[in-house]
Structure formats: structure tokens, C-alpha cells
Amino acid sequence: MSKDTNTYLLQVKDLRKTFPDASQPIEILKGTELTVEAGQNISITGQSGSGKSTFLNVISGLETFDSGEVIWGDKSLKSLNEKGISELRADYLGFIFQAYYLIPELNAFENILMAARLKGKITADKKDRAQEMLEKVNLQDRAKHSVLKLSGGERQRVAIARALINQPKVILADEPTGNLDEKTADEIIELIFNITEYAQCSLILVTHNPQFAKMTHKHYQLHDGQLIKS
Ligand SMILES: Nc1ncnc2c1ncn2[C@@H]1O[C@H](COP(=O)(O)OP(=O)(O)OP(=O)(O)O)[C@@H](O)[C@H]1O
Ligand SMILES: [Mg+2]
Predict the structure, then answer these.
(1) What is the mean pLDDT of residues 133-149?
(2) Whose CA is closest to 128, among 195, 120, 136?
(3) Are 106 and 144 in contact (CB under 8 A)?
(4) What is the pLDDT of residues 58-111, one digit of tens each?
(5) Domains, the chain, ranges and CATH?
(6) Residue 29's beta-bridge partner residues?
(7) Residues in Cβ contact with 227 at an 8 Å cutoff, skipping those fewer than 6 apart
(8) Residues within 6 Å of ligand 1 by CB
(9) How many angstroms does the Cα of residue 47 sit away from the middle of ligand 1?
(10) Residues with Cβ < 8 Å from 217, sequence gap 6 or more?
(11) What is the pTM for the complete model shown?
């Protein structure tokens, strides 16, 4: 029996993406397929340059695609304009990057709250949620700290809290431990798994670390433009 498609948070069907190039176009995604269910965490590994970041950019609507389907819940990105995509993205997705991308002028608490501010007025509820997330990432005593004075691991904790403040359905993490030492990387991965479970959101983790990849419900390798389950 075929599965009810509404149970998927994310569906990617026959996705194709080519970058133009001076000599010949570079085909990056060649019929890529993926489904993600609620509460599921998956990992993607693959050689440098295989297209992992491109895939995340395309499925989050930050980058266009040539053909195929990207569906968030029951909404196909093809049915939305740019404004519609960015409004839904703010509700639906949270992002964690290798390089943190915090705002240097703001303290830890303000950085977390910034993601909520982009969606509208800051309410007492949102401040409570920011405080809750700050505590969840164990940085309650660093709230007023300039992010420039935080360690790499602490900066990534702020970014994790920021990714979760709007209660997204899916977290996309692109090599979130790429800039961290081994011990801190282990702590951050554990935190990402725990906090996404606590927040009941799904996770797509791109990593070069095979140990981390093995820890997810499903593991795929991006090879020659296709996601291959391993
Ligand atoms: N805007 C662009 N224009 C042209 N080519 C691009 C563009 N963005 C990415 N590429 C090319 O697409 C390929 C895939 O890049 P991508 O960054 O997605 O790889 P990746 O798997 O994330 O690699 P890494 O593991 O090093 O992060 C690379 O060959 C890259 O040069
Ligand atoms: Mg990448």
C-alpha cells in the first residue's frame, strides 16, 4: 500500500539542478529523491563538491532548480512566489551552518531572538522561548555575552538555539561541526540530536563524519547527483 503523502514533512522528487559554466553546464542534481517524515533524522555524506550544500539550498528554496518537485508538507515550492517561499521558510525550516553566521554586534540572547524578530513583533512569549532555548543549549549564564567573546562550540550553541526559536518542522544542518575540535564536535552533535528530539522536529544533517552519519535513522550518500541509501 502506498504511504499517505501527507505524513511527509518534506518530499523531493526527480530534482534536477545545473549551474551554467563558461564551457559547459555543470549538472549537480540529477533526479535526486528524498522523503523526510516527522520526527525522523537523516544524514547525507558525499565527496566535497558532490552537491550537498547545493541540495540543501535548493530544498530550502534559497536556490532555484531546473525541474522536479520540492514539497514542504503539502505545499509545492512551484506553487509559491518568492515572498510566499520566504514566509513559509521562516515557519518551516531552521538552519545550522558550519560558520555559525551570528550577528557580531548582538549578544547571545539577541542573536537567538533575531530569528523571531524577522517574523514579526517580539512578544513576551518569544522572549520566553529564547530563554528556554538558551537554557536548552546550556548557555543561560552567557545571555549578555558578545558572541565575539564566545568559543566556537558556544557560538554553535547560540546558532542551534536560534535555529529552533520559531519551532520549525525541519532543521537543516550543513557540516555543523566542521570548525570544531573532536570533543566539542561530539558534544554539539549530541546536542543537535537531543534538542531536535525535544523540539519534535526532523533533522537533515550533512556531515563528513561517518560516525555521526551512522547515528541517524537513515543515511544517504550523495553520489553523481543522486541520494543513495546506505
Ligand atoms: N553558484 C554556483 N555557480 C556555479 N557552480 C557552483 C555554484 N555553487 C556551487 N557550484 C559547484 O557545484 C558543485 C557542488 O558544490 P557544493 O558546495 O554543493 O558541494 P558540497 O558537496 O557541499 O561540498 P563540500 O563538502 O566541500 O561542502 C561544486 O563543484 C561547486 O563548484
Ligand atoms: Mg558544502
Answers:
(1) 96
(2) 136
(3) no
(4) 999 999 999 999 999 999 999 999 999 999 999 999 999 999 999 999 999 999
(5) 5-229 (3.40.50.300)
(6) 17
(7) 32, 33, 34, 44, 55, 220, 221
(8) 19, 26, 28, 46, 48-54
(9) 11
(10) 40, 41, 42
(11) 0.95
